[in-house]
Amino acid sequence: MRNPIIVALDVPDIERARQLVRDLAPVVGAFKVGKELFVAAGPDVVRALGGLGFEVFLDLKFHDIPNTVAKAVSSAVRLDVQMLTVHTAGGHEMLAAAEEAAQRTAAQQGTEPPLVLGVTVLTSMDNENLVETGVESTVAQQVERLAMLAAKCGLRGLVCSPLEIALLRQVIPSNMQLVTPGIRPDGGGGDDQKRTLTPREAVEAGGDWLVIGRPIYQAENPRKAAEEIMASLK
Ligand code: C5P
Fold first, then answer.
1. Tell me, what CATH number does 104's domain have?
2. Which of 19, 31, 43, 130 could tie 135 with a disulfide, CB 3.0–4.6 Å?
3. pLDDT tens, 100-138?
4. pLDDT band at 212 (very low <50, low <70, confident <90, very high)
5. Which residue from 60, 56, 18 is spatially nearest to 38, judged by alpha carbons?
6. In whole angstroms, what is the distance from residue 164 CA to residue 119 CA?
7. CB within 8 A of 5, min separation 6: which ones?
8. How confident is the model at residue 189, as a pLDDT?
9. Residue 73 confidence (pLDDT)
10. Whose CA is nearest to atom 5 of ligand 1?
């Protein structure tokens, strides 16, 4: 079985990231570099991970005019990341430009194009927050609408809440990959993730990749925590 665990390296500096990577490398599938670490440590952290042979998910959630996003995606492809994120709210042209840039730049350098993952509605948003931004649909309706838009624009994957997996699996093409944060091995509670599933529930619902941060990096023994999660999936 492929290891579906992507560890979120949500730490403020490269030293702490290195320590985690050393501990976890043999027992997880990939590492996610998000805004906190990228802004602090820059592309070197991505190069270092790639240089050690790890798959990297660059989670910078691009959202800008199509030309700017396309160039940012090309830069990410040159860093040799395997996954990256864009906001689907950026619209048709931006999404198509992102996917096209990923394919073209990868072809130019002779590598596999990364999965350009669409982010639909942030899990921190509820129906009222959507109304405040002028969106009258419910979160579920908006997630579905944006997921369909991403599929239409050629994206091959989405980031979604684990509770959205079942709904999305009914409407998106079956080959689209679903990457889900909001995973809690003990069923949840205790921090800011309110809508969670266990790793096993998320995989059974049709999730392809599990993004897991605090339950691993805040554990007393991160490696043991990751091993236990993997064992729970078998
Ligand atoms: O610590 P935790 O397991 O909650 O970390 C989840 C990771 O997934 C964090 O890096 C967070 O930024 C990211 N994420 C999320 N919810 C989203 C998108 C990304 O929690 N909707």
1. 3.20.20.70
2. 130
3. 999 999 999 999 999 999 999 998 889 999 999 999 999
4. very high
5. 60
6. 12
7. 27, 28, 29, 30, 199, 210, 212, 216, 226, 229, 230
8. 66
9. 98
10. 213
How much is the average pLDDT of 43-61?
95
Note down the domain range covering 109.
5-232
> What total of structural domains would you count in the chain?
1
Question: What digits encode the pLDDT tens for the residues 56-66?
Answer: 999 999 999 99
Please confirm, yes or no, whether 61 is among the known catalytic residues: yes
User: Ligand 1 pocket test: which of 211, 212, 217, 229 has the largest number of ligand atoms within 8 Å of its C-beta?
Assistant: 211
Taking residue 135's Cβ as centre, other Cβ atoms within 10 Å add up to 17
Ligand 1 nearest-atom number relative to CA 32: 10
